[in-house]
Specification:
The complex is a heterodimer of chains A (113) and B (115). Chain A is mainly beta. Chain A contains no helices and eleven strands. In chain A, a hairpin with a 6-residue loop joins strand 9 and strand 10. Chain B is mostly beta strands and 115 residues long. In chain B, the strands form two sheets. In chain B, strands 2, 4, 5, 6, 9, 10 and 11 form a seven-stranded mixed β-sheet that branches.
């Protein structure tokens, strides 16, 4: 069985500060991992994905995530937050050959001026 | 423009009145899926379809039906809606039936209220 835990339903940072959104997963098979972003009143869009090619994955808008198998983590980071980063972020996991994707509960990011 | 469309975007209905939410994609994707989003629970999969005439239950299928008669369309049917189905619904599609490998493209969402 697969599961995803996102630590912190809300995270608040100042503009220009480091963004760190935490995601831990559980999977009995090598996982595929995703981060999606949801802006207000919109659907989800892909930020980045890990599919075993490289442990450090770079995505859009300056975000990146590092796959750490020993810690079963896939935390999302951005060196310097921008006001436009305010949104809800979802971590998701699926297994090789699987048809389902399991989403975490989401973390809402607030960026203060 | 490549996209997933859903209609309606907003719907208020009463308990027991059958409704259908349509979903269409123009990317020739094999895989399509329905999710509901509830505060604190993230997205939970309702049903998915790996190709035409092939559908399967997700994690929360009770009270919902789907069909996949054409590759581009994947409607969600609530035969007898109840207030606990009040939620934000998303349709998504993916290039191949191996949804785990490919990213999913999401529609804009349908906000459903059942009174």
């Amino acid at each position: 069985a697969q599961s995803v835990t996102q630590l912190g339903s809300h995270v608040s940072v100042s503009e220009g500060a480091l963004v760190l959104l935490r995601c831990n997963y559980s999977s009995s098979v090598p996982p595929y991992l995703f981060w999606y972003v949801q802006y207000p009143n919109q659907g989800l869009q892909l930020l980045l994905k890990y599919t075993s090619a490289a442990t450090l994955v770079k995505g859009i808008n300056g975000f990146e995530a590092e796959f750490k198998k020993s810690e079963t983590s896939f935390h999302l980071t951005k060196p310097s937050a921008h006001m436009s980063d305010a949104a809800e972020y979802f971590c998701a996991v699926s297994g090789t050959g699987g048809f389902k994707t399991i989403f975490g509960a989401g973390t809402r990011l607030f960026v203060k001026a | 423009e490549a996209q997933v469309t859903q209609n309606p975007r907003y719907l208020i209905t009463v308990t027991g009145k059958k409704l259908t939410v349509t979903c269409s994609q123009n990317m020739n994707h094999e895989y399509m899926s329905w999710y509901r989003q509830d505060p604190g629970l993230g997205l939970r999969q309702i049903y998915y379809s790996m190709n035409v005439e092939v559908t399967d239950k997700g994690d929360v299928p009770e009270g919902y039906k789907v069909s996949r008669k054409e590759k581009r369309n994947f409607p969600l049917i609530l035969e007898s809606p109840s207030p606990n189905q009040t939620s934000l619904y998303f349709c998504a599609s993916s290039l191949s039936r191996l949804a785990g490998l490919n990213e999913q493209y999401f529609g804009p969402g349908t906000r459903l209220t059942v009174t």
